[in-house]
Design brief:
The complex is a heterodimer of chains A (511) and B (427).
Chain A (H helix, E strand, L loop, with lengths): L6 E10 L2 E11 L4 E5 L6 H8 L7 E6 L2 E3 L4 H6 L2 E4 L11 H6 L5 E2 L3 E2 L1 H15 L14 H14 L4 E5 L7 H16 L3 E6 L2 H7 L2 E6 L2 E7 L5 H9 L17 E11 L5 E11 L2 E6 L6 H8 L7 E6 L2 E3 L5 H7 L1 E4 L3 H5 L6 H5 L10 E2 L2 E2 L1 H14 L16 H14 L4 E5 L7 H16 L3 E6 L2 H7 L2 E6 L2 E6 L5 H8 L4 H6 L1
Parallel strand pairs in A: 3-10, 3-11, 6-9, 9-10, 15-22, 15-23, 18-21, 21-22
Antiparallel strand pairs in A: 1-2, 1-4, 4-5, 7-8, 11-12, 13-14, 13-16, 16-17, 19-20, 23-24
Helix pairs in contact in A: 14-15
Chain B lengths: L7 H17 L10 H34 L4 H12 L10 H33 L7 H17 L6 H30 L3 H20 L27 E3 L7 E2 L1 H18 L1 H11 L1 H7 L3 H28 L4 H6 L2 H11 L6 H15 L5 H4 L4 H20 L1 H29 L1
Antiparallel strand pairs in B: 1-2
Helix pairs in contact in B: 2-3, 2-16, 2-17, 3-14, 4-8, 4-11, 4-13, 4-14, 5-6, 5-7, 5-11, 5-13, 6-7, 6-11, 8-9, 8-11, 9-10, 9-11, 13-14, 13-16
The chains are: A alpha/beta (511), B mainly alpha (427).
Chain lengths: 511, 427
Amino acid sequence: MTEPPVLELRGITKQFPGVLANDHVDLDVAAGEVHALLGENGAGKSTLMNILYGLYHPDSGEILLRGTKTSFSSAKDAIQSGIGMVHQHFMLIPVMTVAENIVLAEEPTYAGVMLDIGEARARVRELSDRYGLAVDPNARIQDITVAQQQRVEILKALYRGAEILVLDEPTAVLTPQEAKELFAIIAGLKEQGKSIIFITHKLHEVLEVADRITVLRRGKRIDTVPREGATEESLARMMVGREVLLRVEKGPAKPGETLLEVSDLHVFDDRGLEKVRGVSFSVRAGEIVAIAGVDGNGQTELIDALTGLLRPASGTVTVAGKRAHQGSTAREMLDLGIGHIPEDRQRRGLVLEFSIAENIALHDYCFEPASTAGWMYPKRLIMRAAQLIKDFDVRGGGPKTPSGALSGGNQQKVVVAREVARNPKVLIAAQPTRGLDVGAIEYVHRRLVAERDEGRAVLLVSLELEEVLSLADRILVIFEGQIVGEYGPDVSEEELGIAMTGGRRKEAAAA
Amino acid sequence: MSEGPLDPEQKRLDAQEQQVLESTGGEPGGYAPSVAARMAVLQRAGGIVMPVVTTVFAFAMAMIVIAATGHNPFRAFQGIFDGTGLNWLFPWVTGDERVEAAYNLQQTLVVTTALILTGFAVSFAFKCGLFNIGGQGQYLVGAFASMWVGTSWASMSSGLHIFIAVALAAVAGAAWAAISGFLKATVGVHEVISTIMLNWVAVWVTQALVGQGGQLQNSTDKSVPVSADIVQKAHLPVFWGDPVLQGLHVGFFIALGAPLVYWLILNRTTLGYEVRATGFNPEAARYGGVNVKRSYVLAMAISGMFAGLAGAMDILGWQFRLGVLDIQVSSIGFIGIAVALLGRNSAIGVPFAALLFGALLQGTSTRNPAIQDVIKPELAGNLTLIIQGLVLLFVGADLLFLWIWRLRTKIRRTPAAPAAQPGAAAR
């Protein structure tokens, strides 16, 4: 490389008490390059990017912008130097329009006081045309899709003159189709000479968009490799430090009796919209049935109805031959034998302020041995938690550790441990690997297969086609609140993708 | 986008960082507290540190106020302190001074008794994520119930009479507060609104009942708007001091037992588990099978029980009747909010916070001669309100303290960084 790289990080070291978050990390990014930063949760990606964005000060090491040494003391400095960051959670104001959000803090004005909204719109249009980021400047944030909101965030960074864009796990919130569109946008930005740092832990994405890949593990840079010649297996090995099974090993299903029977279920959401419109299916002991679909097609409401968190309008749910009555509470569904790994472990699956022991008792606190006649026995909770922490290999704390202090993967292990240890007949897993790193995903997948082989009926709801294809024995596609097709495990990703977007709906209805 | 050190994004990042760092530790001892974690530790240690710091700040500000009005702040505080009777604890205080101190301390502890209970009334609801502003109303309803029992059934045996009066006051306070819990659980009325409104209902209904022409007004002098006196046998026995001069009554032991009850309910019963789960994360509680609505009703009821008990302690312990004027000037229930905030809703913190406010009330009382030498009695009473207000202000401001603390570490870190750079360059 003759030209100096646009951005160079040299020997960045950041020590937090007890842990080296970054240990002499080097990173260089060329103009017009997409550079992927790959690593498991806790590898130090976020620390490194926070240092770049001026949120942390490195203990040693330096940042060079176009060959000149710089130091940022705040995000403002970083923004002014042309660094833009798109966080995983968007920071947009829902009631304001796209244009208003983009120009916020640097508004074009009349006479320095009045917002010149016409000018703002024009500038936003100009930007979105130049970079091929189609958004309606007049739409309100609350009315547009997540993918569009992400575009607004990117536009906001570009509006502020970003030359280097940091995208933090940008595909975590997108459907496969939307992710494809994002990759096209990234390619466009690259053509315009922008540099992109793409943070992720999804291997196939890296191979799709990145020019070069830097892998971090435990705060150290393991290697920087060009995309050519890299494979998912080689990257996974660098990330985890050992061989990883990317495909789940499982024998053929041996389905037994029907344990979950759903018949003509109709569910309305809080806003009174019919989100589940006549769904019927069954899950037998010893099989994994996956419900695939684009987010927002009724999966959440279906699960909530099955677990007693949302009252179905009509239809029946039968668990192991016992019919749940209309409007069963969460407690009644738990007692019928449903285990539920919820979609959002932080919002629903765990009380983050509670210790691991208290969280493990979340369903059974009111039964022996956790309590007798309303009196709790914390020692018994702790003993049980200690056992499960061992059995399920939860790391990062003991029974008394607040669950909020655990990493995402270990939090999920706590949830899985609790649900599985209750010995449920039906295990409902909603997005069980969302936000987890490769090692944790491998664990959860193996566990689900193991539970299947134990003779439970497993209902998997996932937005990740890869996960659906590798785990499921049968695949149901949900579209606009209806099951529009059933497939075997050997169906192609393309076929599923088409069905998920309603392509096969008419045929399925006709059949 | 604000770049302030306290903006939510920064906090989120810190939380993320904490997770990130801690997941790094597969190896033992790989625990690395982030800024957020260290703040959390400070906040936990701040369970003691912060209230003490806020109190010291409030007192310092109060001294400035006193100085500004042209009085000697040190002499004023000396006067307040002597007025609380806490100097009784010093062995060198003897003779008449000691008698006086004992009397003052009894007064302080009588007030503290009620404040401990109204403090827990606010704390318990807090643990369920509810802000119970209705302590005052629940206190009045409890006071009224115990007065009603205490003025009836004159022939009953003493122990039973007191027991029924206290129990009924607790039940009445619980029922009164449960209305708010029920409204929240069923139709979603915010508890702040409903408890405030129920305060006024309690104030006016009790005033109407004991005021002129009220059903429970005393029959001896119709010009005085107070209830009849409760019968002698329903008085709580005084174990320290002169029963005629409002000595310390046995209700003090009920207040001393309250922290234990509070802690046991929260930490050793399934009800407490449900209340805490609901308070931290109602969505997770519901998912876990907790009946969240039931938690709201029961948490409010237990809160109200504490406040109702406080009412009974005051009526049966030293007031012996309920008057319109008492109802109008009483603010024991409201001070309970300050007590809960300063005491951090903790079983140990609340009694100490109650003692502080009880001592302040007594020390700045217009009856305290020690302070009247220094400040006008009218001003002295206001001093309590000033300190109380400042304490509340600073309790709410602990985030500010944390921010200053962080700023300090930031300043300390910034000069250190350039020093590290030459070393890095040399390598």
